[in-house]
Amino acid sequence: MSQTRHLSHAWGNHVLFEGLSIAIPAGVTLVQGDEQTGKTTLLRILAGELAPSGGWVETQGQRADKQPETYAPMVFRTDPLHTALDQTSPSAWFNTLPDCYPLLNPGMLGALVKDFGLSPHMDKPLYMLSAGSRRKVWISAALASGAALTLIDQPFAALDGPSMRLLREVLQDFSEQAGRACVIADYEAPEGVPLASTIHL
Ligand SMILES: Nc1ncnc2c1ncn2[C@@H]1O[C@H](COP(=O)(O)OP(=O)(O)OP(=O)(O)O)[C@@H](O)[C@H]1O
Q1: How far apart are the first and last CA of the chain?
Q2: Which InterPro entries has this protein been placed in (predicted)?
Q3: Where are the domains of the chain?
Q4: 57 CA distance to ligand 1 centroid (A)?
Q5: Distance 177 CA to ligand 1 centre (A)
Q6: Whose CA is nearest to atom 14 of ligand 1?
Q7: What's the number of CA atoms in the CB half-sphere (13 Å) around residue 177?
Q8: Which residues pair with 198 in a beta bridge?
């Protein structure tokens, strides 16, 4: 479904990774590595946001470098450091998503909002939300987007206990869905989430 071929990222004499030829199957794939090993960089390359130094990435037969317009709607990357939406409310942002992600599942999005306890925050600007709530907003959009490839950096960071349990359940369900891949980046394998594959950096 997604794959990389001979992927490398380097600058000056510093090689972050090289020769990565990996297949990303449906279900949950973990990108595992210590600090500063290139997890976020790999996610950005998989999202088509960053050009690799060498090699290429492909999702459902479309290459990020050759077909950027068709590639972008197939991929959703959560970026907890993104500030461009700070003045936007989750409701307003969610209303724009079907334009980019026509396969967005509104029922799933509504259920995640409710179960993550986001309902009281839906009309507030994102900058007013806690780090955990902002992360839940991004994760809800990502998981409901219907994107063929969903990329989530440190999905459990800043989440409260009940939200961690809910996310585990949602990722379990996700791993049983045919046709969608979710790549999560973290230091350790998450408990209770069946993994389709692991990429070690
Ligand atoms: N082209 C580049 N030029 C200079 N530095 C770069 C370049 N690309 C990546 N880096 C740096 O490489 C480092 C590691 O990258 P990255 O953030 O992807 O690792 P990570 O495994 O996600 O780290 P962490 O777990 O600490 O968040 C970062 O400090 C990043 O700024």
Answers
A1: 21
A2: ABC_transporter-like_ATP-bd (IPR003439), P-loop_NTPase (IPR027417)
A3: 26-38+69-200
A4: 19
A5: 32
A6: 36
A7: 18
A8: 30
- State the pTM of this model: 0.93
48 lines ligand 1 (CB under 6 A): no
By alpha-carbon position, which residue is closest to atom 1 of ligand 1? 11
Confidence check on the interface: ipTM exceeds 0.90, yes or no: yes
% of the chain exceeding 90 in pLDDT: 86
Amino acid at 12: G
Q: Tens of pLDDT along 149-182?
A: 999 999 998 899 999 999 999 999 887 777 899 9
Query: What is 26-38+69-200's CATH number?
Result: 3.40.50.300
Helices (H), 47-178: 68-71, 90-100, 106-115, 131-144, 161-176
Going by alpha carbons, the residue nearest to atom 5 of ligand 1 is 11
* Beta-strand runs (E) in the chain: 2-11, 14-20, 23-24, 27-32, 54-59, 62-63, 75-78, 149-153, 181-186, 197-200
Name the residue with the closest Cα to ligand 1, atom 6: 11
**Residue 40: CB within 6 Å of ligand 1?**
yes
CA 1 to chain centre: 15
3-state class of 10 per DSSP? Answer: strand
